[in-house]
């Protein structure tokens, strides 16, 4: 159970502690932040509201610890990570319990998130050993005008202190996807978890604590992003920010200093369906891609662009599959669970009502109880409706009927977002042409968009982000190249 057994030391009375200098601490602020259970809509947990002074101390400790960590042999760093991964998987149930209560993730998916996170940490340790174990040797005489008098040895070195800020929808997985590459590369790590999901993240951090990482190397400060976010992201002690979330990331990019940024932001992933597509496959992917975790996934299908000639048939198949979705609490493993907050539910409802007023066809009756919104497919959506462009992050999906593949690509590219997209067709040549034309970080052919497997490159264009994730890319991104040049005494000096 959460907050008990090995996790007993991370809670003080009703309030979870924050993690700094290798210890669990109460904030001097004396204030806490309440986490509302999306299903019951009552307070579930409380976390510390950390102060700026506490952030300063965390940064100082991180800086000092990082210097020693960078000199810790790579194989040893990998061993620590493997140990943390094993502990994380061993304690998957209490962590999953937090995910169910804080973000209403269906119980089975919550366990999967923790196990996947353990696997990600281990894979990163292995990948890091290979990638960081190699450097380059360059010789000078390949560049015009040079003799072979200089030998350049280059290798990857850590950046310093990495600030990791994940979003609510994968507070464990999207935290470790930042923590593990930062640590294997020799960086220190400061985590600011999302408020909804903070307690799951604190449990996860305790698994790293139990693995015995040096004091100060890893810390986790809690509090509302709107209150301590700016102080963290503009802190002079931070050498890299890895952020996943919504538009907040755009604001952070404008304020952050001259440091590497990894920004994985929102999406409006388009699903283009051509006339020759396998409509059963299309329907299965629209339902899975659009409604899993109630549509609260960055790579959820967020707009269907379908050829008019097959639209009626496809919509009928999607409706039939949607009728089988179970709706209810996450504890019962329902397919559709309450969305994360009342304000999210209100925002989703606003998009639905705008579409209704402008004449969209509702394939099901719109229904909402508290934060629980019944899955809804909106047909005959037109570009003047907000839902054609905005990201609902909920179980409502617009269908726009198109007359040509070009029209579909045009709608996709007119979006401010460019995360992923997908195309369904049996014609691989057409699929490749459409993939080339879509301005998104990834295009899936004959499958719904998805992040993962976690070692695949993952990136967004335009307002969907900068930089690229995926294990190898994140390790590379959290390092810089260091060169040492050996100069021979004289280019004319030769032996033999
Ligand atoms: P969000 O509101 O942008 O919050 C993300 C994180 O930023 C949270 O930890 C939040 O903390 C923190 N934050 C808030 N204000 C901040 C500030 N001023 N400075 C620094 N940090 C601040 O996003 P969300 O609602 O959690 O997540 C949903 C969004 O994430 C969607 O748009 C989704 O598409 C996107 N997403 C993208 C990807 C991807 O890989 N591209 C993956 C998953 C989700 P608090 O919780 O305390 O406010």
What does this structure look like?
With 496 residues, the protein is an alpha/beta fold. The protein is 38% helix and 21% strand. The chain has 14 helices and 26 strands. Strands 16-19-20-15-14-22-23 form a seven-stranded mixed β-sheet, sandwiched between helices. A hairpin with a 2-residue loop joins strand 17 and strand 18. Helix 2 (74-90) crosses helix 6 (198-210), helix 5 (173-184) crosses helix 14 and helix 9 packs across helix 10. The longest helix is centred in the first third of the chain and has 26 residues, at 107-132. The protein is globular. Bound molecules: NADP nicotinamide-adenine-dinucleotide phosphate. The site of NADP nicotinamide-adenine-dinucleotide phosphate has 28 residues, from helix 7 and helix 8. Its EC number is 1.2.1.9. Keywords: Cytoplasm, NADP, Oxidoreductase. Important as a means of generating NADPH for biosynthetic reactions. This is NADP-dependent glyceraldehyde-3-phosphate dehydrogenase. Belongs to the aldehyde dehydrogenase family.
């Amino acid at each position: 159970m959460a907050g008990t057994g090995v996790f007993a030391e991370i809670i003080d009375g009703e309030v979870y502690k924050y993690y700094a200098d290798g210890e669990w601490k109460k904030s001097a602020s004396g204030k806490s932040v309440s986490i509302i259970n999306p299903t019951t809509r009552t307070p579930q947990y409380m976390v510390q509201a950390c102060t700026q002074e506490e952030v300063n101390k965390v940064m100082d400790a991180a800086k000092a610890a990082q210097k020693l960590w960078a000199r810790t042999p790579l194989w040893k760093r990998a061993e620590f990570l493997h140990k943390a991964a094993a502990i994380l998987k061993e304690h998957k149930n209490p962590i999953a319990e937090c995910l169910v209560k804080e973000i209403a993730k269906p119980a089975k998916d919550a366990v999967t998130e923790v196990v996947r996170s353990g696997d990600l940490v281990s894979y990163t340790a292995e990948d890091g050993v290979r990638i960081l174990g190699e450097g380059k040797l360059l010789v000078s005489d390949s560049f015009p005008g040079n003799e072979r008098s200089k030998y350049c040895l280059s290798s990857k070195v850590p950046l310093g202190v990495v600030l990791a800020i994940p979003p609510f929808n994968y507070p464990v997985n999207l935290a470790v996807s930042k923590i593990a590459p930062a640590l294997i590369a020799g960086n220190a790590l400061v985590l600011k978890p999302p408020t909804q999901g903070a307690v799951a993240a604190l449990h996860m951090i305790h698994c790293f604590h139990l693995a015995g990482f040096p004091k100060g190397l890893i810390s986790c400060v809690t509090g509302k992003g709107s209150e301590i976010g700016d102080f963290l992201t503009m802190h002079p002690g931070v050498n890299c920010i890895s952020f996943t979330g919504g538009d907040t990331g755009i604001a952070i990019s404008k304020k952050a200093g001259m440091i590497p940024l990894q920004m994985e932001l929102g999406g409006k992933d388009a699903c283009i369906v051509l006339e020759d597509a396998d409509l059963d496959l299309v329907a299965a992917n629209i339902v899975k891609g659009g409604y899993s975790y109630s549509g609260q996934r960055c790579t959820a299908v967020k707009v269907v662009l379908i050829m008019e000639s097959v639209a009626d048939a496809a919509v009928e198949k999607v409706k039939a599959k949607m009728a089988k979705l179970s709706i209810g609490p996450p504890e019962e493993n329902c397919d559709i669970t309450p969305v994360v907050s009342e304000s999210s539910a209100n925002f989703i409802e606003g998009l639905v009502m705008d579409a209704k007023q402008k004449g969209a066809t509702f394939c099901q009756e719109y229904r909402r109880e508290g934060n629980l919104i019944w899955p809804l497919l909106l047909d005959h959506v037109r570009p003047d409706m907000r839902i054609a462009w905005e990201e609902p992050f909920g179980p409502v999906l617009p269908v726009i009927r198109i007359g040509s593949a070009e029209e579909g690509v045009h709608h996709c590219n007119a979006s401010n977002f460019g995360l992923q997209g997908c195309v369904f067709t049996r014609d691989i040549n057409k699929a490749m042409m459409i993939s080339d034309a879509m301005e998104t970080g990834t295009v899936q052919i004959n499958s719904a968009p998805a992040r993962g497997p976690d070692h695949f490159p993952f990136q967004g264009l335009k307002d969907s982000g900068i930089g690229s994730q995926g294990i190898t890319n994140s390790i590379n991104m959290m390092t810089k190249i260091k060169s040492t040049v050996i100069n021979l005494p004289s280019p004319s000096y030769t032996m033999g």
